[in-house]
Design goal:
homotetramer; mainly alpha; Arc Repressor Mutant, subunit A; Tetracycline Repressor, domain 2; 10 helices; DNA-binding
Chain lengths: 218, 218, 218, 218
DNA sequence: AATGAATGAGGGTTCATTCAT
DNA sequence: CATGAATGAACCCTCATTCAT
């Protein structure tokens, strides 16, 4: 029966509305943290920015603490599905996949000052670091493994002697984090496009047969 | 004038004691921020940890905000004099100086979990506090110039074609920041010694004639 | 009129369902107040415990305050009809009726930790809520008169010189309340059966011809 | 030196002031609980009634919870030292001591509507009962033992056959609690003097050789 | 009739700052 | 100078009540 296939309409609509609210609040939280920092973010501002009453935060997230955690989870999920999708859509070679991962990090959708600010807020605040680890450790490991695997493949394909996949993967990851930071802090007049170029320059250095400063070799 | 040359002794002693108080409070602030984060750091804890009364903080720093700024300034000054000293004491060649800068970043005295935590706490809040941003930028301006200059010199000395001092200096700086972060977050099981090695591996890649994974070529 | 004699069936069924709802909510309120106290009792918990939605409480009772008043009234009515029934069913003599009243107070159905807790919760708040006070007074007015009357009868029957019905009735009532409290607070390892015995011991003292520690003299 | 014998004056004055503040707040709490009940008592009202700012409550008591606990402790201490003093000052016979305990319960200083309200608030609220027990169990036991011991002595002295010290002590204690309740709730138009008389009437009944309705026999 | 999402007032708690001593 | 008691604004959270569906 149709009834079974599709839920009772008002219920489904309600459910959707609820999810909508959550998302609005998370977006508002990202904005608030970016604008006022972790310490300066309070729920009444977040709620107001989302066009709701204070009570909504506790209704949907139970506490400020959990709102922040869910915000982090949102970003982490977004990042994870982004790189997984990127790998799927990338060309078949390891080098092309690697290039996609680098491109991704400096894509406007992810490399956004507001979002970067939230990442650094979690990394920077001693109290939220355990939360970050609990939530992101696994995700980060998966990413690291993917990165490491791709580096290994490129090394094998390109017969790069003396190249150490471990070192290269770690370097690339650290480089990205550092560039993100420079972008966030407006350090060294860093921009996403310059950061992208710097990352490819690194790859061109370690894998000269596969990369140039501009990207992957065709 | 006499007054300037030799201040009234008790006055001078007082001045010294005052400076002593300030330092104690800053040290206690570093501890507190590292342990409890920015938001979790409050004046009374800091004062108690420094063995003083609450009132001392406002007496010496006027406000909590100023205490934090002075703490950041303390770290920035410490870092600056460290690298300036390092450059003076390093061997005469640019490569040796560059190596010293890298070594410095992973020296226990500076690459210390407590201090890293404080740096990242400030960076995490920086976007929302112009004062921090200004201080951070200032810290890096001169350092970047030194780094850039050294890279240029090495490039000239080594006749590295296609090497871009801008890119290399920025890469090295970003790499360092990212490695610091990995150390702080305990990411990718990063340690200071591994971070140092990774940094030299980068230099060995871009300046193969001057560096190996272990350091500068003799 | 027909309408009054036999209501429209579906309407009557509805009426019954409504009454059912009220009762469920009152029962849930008793549970909640017993478990979490007055201050800790909130509408959503009560509603959930009664298997209904929050809105039902306001639909059936208008406000939380009214729900509490109705709960108190429920207990008062229950107590009243219990002692009225007890008097009807008791033997014909005043002593037997008096004995029934005492027995009643320590019957499991009424002398139940949950219900005692609620009584004392109301008494604890009574002074600050005139409505409760009025309800409590009302509850006791008639009971006291009955008690007083029975004492008088026993005195007359037994020709107890120097016995004052006022004092005895008040003593018995106060003794009962105090024993209830001891049971609730688990004071002096008081149990319902010991409390019953203590009450009869009192009666045996003032009316030695009619009572023993075990109950009424046959 | 005198300095050692007596603390530094300003310090001692401060200490005294602190104790003074605590007492003011406790007094205000008793008032507030009596007037508005447990649930209706909030710290800002208490603080205002004590002529202080809200912050003082948390400064001196850490939390509302602890303020209430300290208020209970104050009453419990007051009661304990009152009955201990009463026993010391009473005549040498057990009957005289027993009479003093009864008198005490209906002395204006202790049998005060405001204080009674607080006792019943603690007894009535499910959440505070554990606190009450933790705090008062020992004190109550000591009192019970004293009461029990006195009853035993009177029984021995008076050669009361068939008198059970356990039952009498428990009865007396329960009777007192019940009378307190009647006074608090304004039940049965109970007053302290009538309650006192009722208590002595009980004693006169069980110990006719030692007591009359008016008190102990000379 | 029934639901539960939404509101917003109210309360406890924290804490930077002030100030009498 | 130095202390720490005192203040009160700001914040998070709870929850009775309302109301659209």
């Amino acid at each position: 029966m149709k009834r079974n296939a599709a839920q009772h309409p008002p219920l489904r609509r309600r459910q959707a509305a609820k999810e909508q609210r959550r998302l609005q609040l998370i977006k508002a939280t990202i904005d608030a943290v970016a604008r006022r920092g972790f310490a300066g973010t309070n729920i009444s501002d977040v709620a107001r920015a989302a066009g709701m009453s204070q009570g909504m935060v506790n209704l949907h997230f139970e506490s400020k603490e959990k709102l922040l955690v869910e915000t982090l989870r949102f970003l982490a999920d977004e990042y994870k599905s982004a790189w997984e999708t990127a790998l799927e859509r990338a060309g078949p070679t390891a080098a092309k996949k690697l290039a996609q991962l680098v491109e991704l990090d400096f894509t406007p959708a992810l490399c956004d000052r507001r979002k970067l600010a939230v990442w650094f807020a979690f990394w920077g605040e001693a109290r939220s670091r355990p939360t970050y680890l609990r939530l992101c450790k696994q995700r980060d490991q998966e990413y690291d493994e993917a990165l490491h695997g791709l580096c290994r493949q490129v090394i094998v394909e390109g017969r790069y002697k003396h190249a150490d996949a471990d070192v290269i993967a770690s370097s690339l990851a650290a480089l990205t984090d550092g560039l993100w930071m420079d972008i966030l802090i407006s350090h060294r007049s860093m921009s996403a496009s310059r950061a992208r170029r710097i990352s490819f320059a690194y790859l061109a250095n370690v894998f000269p047969g596969h990369f140039t400063d501009e990207g992957v070799v065709a």
